[in-house]
Design brief:
The protein has two domains: about 200 residues, Rossmann fold (3-Layer(aba) Sandwich); about 160 residues, Rossmann fold (3-Layer(aba) Sandwich), CATH 3.40.50.2000. The chain is of the alpha/beta class. The chain is built from 17 helices and 13 strands. The two termini are about 10 Å apart. Strand 2 and strand 3 form a beta hairpin.
Length: about 375
């Protein structure tokens, strides 16, 4: 196995800001858990990229996995400390440079020094949504992502995709722009939530639902909030509670306005943007179902995590969900508000026949594991020229 280098700049920035890990971050953290014992951390600043010493790498990996007060490494300090011995070292060759985020890949000069020294870039592709659904992103983001994909296809020695759906989209995009697609492997993601404390008995006894994911237009939270507002108007305050778990993203003003200023929703729709993994696990445990009316996904980790925890799922009917979850979830068109309303009311019943049927189907669900994921990735690395 060649030496593993892991680009940690995105995690650096987000940990430094005290931000809760997103799905992309959680994948990156799993790569550190798996390879971190022998890998080296890479700090990439535009065209410059330096591999830290093993000692500094271990300190950085530990901080990223378990942030703690009293230790706050900075890229600039570590970069200076490792120049020139860590940044320009002939022995860096015969290595794999993992980039599991999307930082810096919009420049064709990414990691130029390490590539010149023989490091082979392997990129993780989470989705191609800015290309397939640009309307859900700022114009500049879509343009930058297209450049990022072109650069990645040109410099990658290998690509890891999280689903067959994502891999097929990548190959189709490469063909459309006249570029070769590097060797690609599909390695499904695994649930990573540890078991956390459940809600207090009083809260757990009341029916509630969970919507999980960054608050952004493609997640379609607006549909759920309008459904809840309508339910409250027609049925009063006895409707189930909805927990919206996710950090606020971009162009989500309509959703934020309802969360902050819609009086009927107060107390019945609860926004949680500071929920750690253990707390999220506890919140999911007694939910009537996870709600995911999203318009597009590259994988859909919340679906896998809910099903692995034995929690029913009501989700948009997307090919990628059927790829790993089969017929277990309850599927609905993301623009069919009437159907979503019917399913929410049905699953809120303590004797719901649909819920009981899904729980029966859930018995046959087998989630992927990170061990399986990395067995696939390790075999792939050994096959690369």
């Amino acid at each position: 196995m060649p030496e593993i280098l892991i680009d940690v700049m995105r995690l650096f920035f987000r940990r430094d800001e005290g931000m809760i890990p997103t799905g992309i971050d959680r994948v990156s953290l799993e790569y550190i858990r798996h390879y971190g014992g022998s890998a080296r951390a890479v700090l990439s600043l535009g065209p410059l990229a330096g591999a830290l010493s093993r000692r500094d790498s271990q300190r950085v990996f530990e901080w990223l996995l378990h942030p703690r007060p009293g230790f706050r490494p900075t890229p600039v300090r570590l970069a200076l400390k490792n120049t020139p011995s860590g940044w320009i070292r002939p022995g860096t060759g015969n290595s794999i440079l993992f980039n599991t985020a999307q930082l810096w890949k919009n420049t064709r000069h990414y990691a130029a020094q390490l590539r010149w020294l023989g490091a082979r870039p392997v990129f993780f592709v989470h989705d191609l949504i800015p290309l397939s659904h640009p309307e859900y992103f700022r114009p500049a983001h879509g343009e930058g992502f297209e450049k990022h994909m072109r650069n990645m296809l040109g410099m990658a020695c290998g690509i890891v995709a999280n689903s067959r759906f994502t891999g097929a989209g990548l190959r189709a995009h490469a063909a459309a722009i006249g570029l070769r697609c590097p060797p690609t492997v599909v390695a499904p993601l695994a649930p990573a939530l540890s078991e956390g404390p459940a809600l207090a008995d009083a809260a757990a006894s009341e029916p509630y639902f969970v919507a999980l994911g960054t608050i952004e237009p493609r997640k379609n939270y607006l549909l759920l909030l309008h459904i809840w507002r309508d339910l409250i108007a027609k049925q009063g305050r006895g409707v189930p509670r909805l927990y919206v778990v996710g950090q606020r993203g971009w162009e989500c003003e309509n959703v934020v306005d309802l969360l902050e200023r819609c009086a009927p929703l107060k107390g019945l729709v609860v926004e949680r943007n500071d929920c750690g993994d253990a707390e999220l696990s506890g919140l999911l445990r007694h939910a009537r179902a996870l709600l995911l009316p999203t318009f597009a996904e590259g994988f859909g980790l919340p679906v896998a995590e809910a099903l692995a925890a034995g929690v029913p799922v009501i989700a948009s009917d997307l090919p990628v969900f059927r790829e790993f979850a089969g017929d277990v979830p309850e599927y609905a068109d993301p623009i069919d508000g009437r159907r979503w309303r019917e399913l929410i009311l049905e699953y809120a019943k303590p004797d719901s026949a649909l819920c009981a049927a899904q729980l029966e189907r859930l018995k046959g669900f087998r989630p992927a594991t990170w061990e399986e994921h990395f067995r696939i990735v390790d075999r792939f690395l050994e096959s690369l020229p």
